[in-house]
């Protein structure tokens, strides 16, 4: 007779008293539990040797080091790597859900082609590549007829895309929008980095640096180290941004200004610093800057635009001056869609403190050497404005390309005004290299799924926000990809070959090997003994030597604190004065829309993972309705109460939600989370809430001509 | 029967700094993966969700701009005098092993849910439905924690299997398994927290950080007046946080400075 659980209970009843008095090893009870609870619908545990594989996360651009824990060769959990400077043992909720995402029902199981009836049918890789070749061959030689949209800000894969496009006669290699685009308008060469670890006063404008901005986990580690449990803090964090988001809530002080007005406050602070006699003789345009700021950004003017009391602004200036190593971080609260004005204005404060390329200051970081012949310089790719381009195509001002190649990006969901993107994509041949069945893949003519970062070799170069140049690899933790996927780099190389375009390599692995070999041209070191911030503060690291490939492909983290060139930074007086925000009240759309991003909601190309759903509060989502947040005064002004249905209408789109009263939102603002409202993906993320990207509205910033949408405005009304 | 009032030489516990926790939820995801909790399709109905580790948002209830938030991660508090233990008719839960962790033997639980009613911290969860992993995802189950069927109560056990591994390791290395060093045994949530808001160790061992921190004037335990003596301490320099944590009335004074 087989024992089922109930008969086991009767059988074991006599043993109960005994177990009480002896220290029973729980593991054995647990084992019995596995045996007795072995109903068919309860998965049986599989045993096997335990191991860890060091790799790098690619779910967002932060590039954290992960350890994938395996049992019997199966990945079971993702953990932060203690030996990796960008994670230091920490992890974000999205990264923590990485292993389970391998098996998310939304995964695309193999190459597929769209049929006449709109459904996707499986095809073989040979057929798929032949199709791609054919479609690209049709466009070969036509100017800008092939466009690539990459969601991978810092992978070498972009070199392959741009070289392939170059071979076809196209210059259309774009990144999904992010802070790096705005930064590139201020700094023409290199990247901007921030040395958090060595700073003692951190003033962040917009940048939600403890959640969705830059090297998020590393930033949290720096924040944690500066706030040791049971001791006094060694650095003060002040957050200027619309909402008490993660950074606003954790910072030592939070000041709310409407999105898009961060720069006004920054110049309000500059006013006090300049009045107090601070100079920046190293900047050629110091006097122009000084005159502009002192004449225009008077305390009264700044108060009128931002609502921040003059004493508070003066107090911030005082704190900055009192600090030993102040660091000012520019950014937008959603790490995208910010303008040059806000960025340059906040950045200029650093120059007044002369902390460019100094310990605890901002750093100009070099781009790592290119290895693919014919690829565009990364700085040129970063500087291309995808949103402006898409708008141009939709409006018919720019000719529509014949083929779009979309890689690890979801532009039909995550570009502001996604309907405009849909218009720009409509009629062109759409190829999706996505791992998951996202909104763009759902529209694609050809699906060429790429393996997840747990199944492939790939790389991460200097994530935006990092304080140092860096390089690390992701590597396959399992021998075979779970589904019939193929690394996009290999697809591109094979299709290029078929098109007679020589990219110089036969496999993506070789491209990465070449990249690693090129690192030896730079002064770099492994972070096993000395961390980059320690090196910057004076501790000498041992130069990386030996077999770089062997070390890096086994998980070593390569870093460099070398400065690329002597930087003659400008305060940016010209661009700041030309891009200044309009000083006008908008009566049609009177409420500022403070969009919120969080790794809880996934990232720009990943929808909310199954394992992150329990993190959402009762007042974030109820069934299929999501919440927008406002403070009680704003709600009262619009006749709204908690739990009321509300409609947000922008010049371009609208959405429905419920009201959550949250006092951590500034005056006359409505805060709304990005990342809800998916229509593709799987049952875990589909039909939950609405897509705020629909309501975000693009304007062109005067002076920079950059597409800007972080400062969108709406009308709100009871629905 | 007063067995559960046994005193322990080792008391594993946490001190959670509420001024440092940013509410990111990495600890919650780490806990689910470590303990094989099935992903819910609709997590918005909190009556049915299983979150052994749950991060609450606290608010000082002041209107803008004086608003302040704090985040409070809540595992099972492993009470020194657990309310959940004496009510269990089949002794599926107990506090009897060195370390003072309140155990839960899923195989023995008959699902009467007395413990859930008794726990003042809502730290226990009932499996209303069979756990379902999307096809293939069951391959990510860890071999350390058995999956629980419908009809039983489950809760956080401070990743007790990690304690067992740490003790085994000490034995193999010829060390005393009852004198683990700080860091030998750490639950998944604590290990993964990106801000280091949770400190874990033996509250009785003066060598461990938690020992000193738990005695800080800023440390407090949830609903201290119920005398459940949790092995989880919270820490905040903000008076309003301490007040809410211990359900103080308006006029009452709190500890701290
Ligand atoms: S912050 Fe980004 S890179 Fe880091 S673990 Fe999370 S998703 Fe991965
Ligand atoms: S992981 Fe750490 S910071 Fe994040 S919610 Fe948990 S305790 Fe707080
Ligand atoms: S927190 Fe609740 S479940 Fe945990 S020991 Fe205390 S009473 Fe029991």
Q: Could you characterize what this model shows?
A:
The complex is a heterodimer of chains A (719) and B (257). Chain A has 719 residues and is an alpha/beta fold. In chain A, 31% of the residues lie in helices and 18% in strands. Chain A has 26 helices and 29 strands. In chain A, the strands form seven sheets. Chain A has a seven-stranded mixed β-sheet with strand order 5-4-16-15-14-6-7. A seven-stranded mixed β-sheet of chain A has the order 22-23-25-24-29-21-26. In chain A, strands 11-10-9-12 form a four-stranded parallel β-sheet. In chain A, strand 24 and strand 25 (654-661) form a beta hairpin. Chain A is globular, with a radius of gyration of 26 Å. Mean pLDDT of chain A is 92; it is low at 1-28 and 34-38. With 257 residues, chain B is α+β, with helices and mostly antiparallel strands. Chain B is 17% helix and 15% strand. Chain B is built from six helices and ten strands; from the N terminus they run E-H-E-E-E-E-H-E-E-H-H-E-H-E-E-H. Chain B has helices spanning 26-34, 114-118, 160-172, 188-192, 209-213, 239-245, and strands at 12-17, 54-59, 69-74, 93-94, 103-104, 124-126, 153-155, 198-202, 219-220, 232-235. In chain B, strands 8-1-10-9 form a four-stranded mixed β-sheet. In chain B, a hairpin with an 8-residue loop joins strand 4 (93-94) and strand 5 (103-104). The mean pLDDT of chain B is 92. The interface between A and B is large, with 97 and 89 residues. The complex binds iron/sulfur cluster (3 copies). One iron/sulfur cluster binds at residues 76-79, 82-84, 102, 119, 121, 123-124, 155, 228 of chain B.
Q: What's the quick description here?
A:
With 719 residues, chain A is of the alpha/beta class.
């Amino acid at each position: 007779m087989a024992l089922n659980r109930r008969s086991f209970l009767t059988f074991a009843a006599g043993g109960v008293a005994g177990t009480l008095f002896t220290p029973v090893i729980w593991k054995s009870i647990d084992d019995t539990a596995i045996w007795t609870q072995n109903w068919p619908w309860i998965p049986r545990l599989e045993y096997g040797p335990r191991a860890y594989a060091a790799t790098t996360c690619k779910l967002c651009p932060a590039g954290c080091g992960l350890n994938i824990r395996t049992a019997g060769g199966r990945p079971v959990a993702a953990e932060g790597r203690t030996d990796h400077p960008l994670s230091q043992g920490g992890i974000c909720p999205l990264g923590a859900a990485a292993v389970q995402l391998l098996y998310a029902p939304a995964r695309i199981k193999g190459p597929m082609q769209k049929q006449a009836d709109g459904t996707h049918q499986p095809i073989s890789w040979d057929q798929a590549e032949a199709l791609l070749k054919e479609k690209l061959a049709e466009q070969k030689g036509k100017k800008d007829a092939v466009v690539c949209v990459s969601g991978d800000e810092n992978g070498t894969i972009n070199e392959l895309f741009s070289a392939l496009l170059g071979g076809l006669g196209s210059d259309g290699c774009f990144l999904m929008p992010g802070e790096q685009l705005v930064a590139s308008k201020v700094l023409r060469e290199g990247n901007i980095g921030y040395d958090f670890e060595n700073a003692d006063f951190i003033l962040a404008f917009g940048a939600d640096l403890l959640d969705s901005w830059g090297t998020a986990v590393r930033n949290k580690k720096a924040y944690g180290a500066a706030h040791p449990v049971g001791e006094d803090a060694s650095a003060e964090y002040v957050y200027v941004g619309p909402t008490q988001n993660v950074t606003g809530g954790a910072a030592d002080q939070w000041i709310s200004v409407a999105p898009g007005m961060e720069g006004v406050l920054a110049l309000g602070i500059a006013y006090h610093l300049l009045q107090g006699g601070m100079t920046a003789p190293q900047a050629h345009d110091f006097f122009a800057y000084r005159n502009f700021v002192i004449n225009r950004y008077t305390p009264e003017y700044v108060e009128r635009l931002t609502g921040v009391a003059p004493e508070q602004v003066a107090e911030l200036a005082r704190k900055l001056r009192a600090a030993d190593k102040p660091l000012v971080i520019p950014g937008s609260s959603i790490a995208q869609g910010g303008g040059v004005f806000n960025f340059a204005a906040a950045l200029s404060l650093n120059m007044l403190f002369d902390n460019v390329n100094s310990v605890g200051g901002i750093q100009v970081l070099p781009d790592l050497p290119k290895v693919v012949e014919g690829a565009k310089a990364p700085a040129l790719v970063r500087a291309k404005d995808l949103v402006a381009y898409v708008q141009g195509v939709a409006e018919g001002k720019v000719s529509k390309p014949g083929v779009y190649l979309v890689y690890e990006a979801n532009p039909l969901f995550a570009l502001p005004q996604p309907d405009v993107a849909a218009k720009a994509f409509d009629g062109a041949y759409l190829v999706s290299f996505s791992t998951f069945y996202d909104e763009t893949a759902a529209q694609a003519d050809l699906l060429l799924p790429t393996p997840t970062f747990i199944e492939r070799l790939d790389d991460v170069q200097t994530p935006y926000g990092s304080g140092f140049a860096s390089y690390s690899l992701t590597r396959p933790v399992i021998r075979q990809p779970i589904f019939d996927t193929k690394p996009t780099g290999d697809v591109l190389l094979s299709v290029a070959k078929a098109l007679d375009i020589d990219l110089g390599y036969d496999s993506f692995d070789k491209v990465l090997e070449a990249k690693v070999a090129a690192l030896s041209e730079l002064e770099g070191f492994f972070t096993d003994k000395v961390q980059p911030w320690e090196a910057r503060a004076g501790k000498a690291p041992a130069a990386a030597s030996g077999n770089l490939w062997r070390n890096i492909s086994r998980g070593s983290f390569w870093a460099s604190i070398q400065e690329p060139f002597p930087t003659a930074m400008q305060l940016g007086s010209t661009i700041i004065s030309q891009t200044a925000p309009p000083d006008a009240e908008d009566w049609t759309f009177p409420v500022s829309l403070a969009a919120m991003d969080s790794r809880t909601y996934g990232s720009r190309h990943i929808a909310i993972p199954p394992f992150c759903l329990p993190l959402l509060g009762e007042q974030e989502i109820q069934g299929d309705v999501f919440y927008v947040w406002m403070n009680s005064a704003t709600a009262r002004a619009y006749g709204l109460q908690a739990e009321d249905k509300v409609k947000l209408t922008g010049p371009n789109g609208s959405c429905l939600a419920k009201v959550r009263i949250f006092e951590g939102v500034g005056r006359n603002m409505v805060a709304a989370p990005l990342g809800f409202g998916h229509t593709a993906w799987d049952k875990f993320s589909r039909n939950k809430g609405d897509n705020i990207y629909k309501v975000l509205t693009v304007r062109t910033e005067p002076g920079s001509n950059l597409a800007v949408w972080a400062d969108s405005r709406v009308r709100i009304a009871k629905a | 029967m007063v067995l559960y009032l046994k005193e322990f030489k080792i008391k594993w516990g946490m001190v959670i700094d509420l001024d440092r926790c940013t509410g990111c939820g990495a600890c919650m995801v780490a806990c689910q993966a470590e303990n094989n909790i099935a992903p819910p399709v609709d997590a918005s109905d909190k009556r049915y969700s299983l979150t052994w580790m749950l991060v609450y948002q606290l608010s000082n209830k002041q209107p803008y701009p004086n608003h302040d938030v704090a985040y409070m991660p809540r595992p099972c508090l492993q009470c020194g005098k657990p309310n959940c233990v004496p009510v269990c008719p089949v002794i599926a839960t107990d506090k009897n092993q060195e370390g003072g962790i309140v155990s839960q033997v899923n195989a023995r639980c008959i699902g009467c849910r007395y413990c859930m009613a008794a726990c003042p911290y809502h730290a226990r969860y009932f499996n209303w439905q069979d756990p379902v992993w999307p096809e293939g995802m069951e391959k990510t189950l860890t071999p350390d924690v058995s999956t629980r069927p419908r009809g039983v109560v489950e809760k956080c056990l401070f990743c007790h299997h990690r304690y067992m591994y740490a003790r085994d390791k000490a034995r193999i290395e010829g060390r005393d398994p009852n004198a683990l060093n700080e860091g030998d045994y750490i639950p998944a949530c604590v290990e993964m927290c990106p801000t280091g808001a949770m400190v874990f160790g033996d509250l009785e061992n003066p060598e461990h950080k938690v020992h000193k921190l738990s005695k800080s004037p800023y440390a407090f335990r949830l609903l201290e007046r119920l005398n459940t003596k949790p092995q989880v301490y919270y820490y905040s320099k903000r008076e309003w946080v301490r007040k809410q944590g211990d359900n103080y009335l308006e006029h009452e004074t709190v500890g701290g400075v």
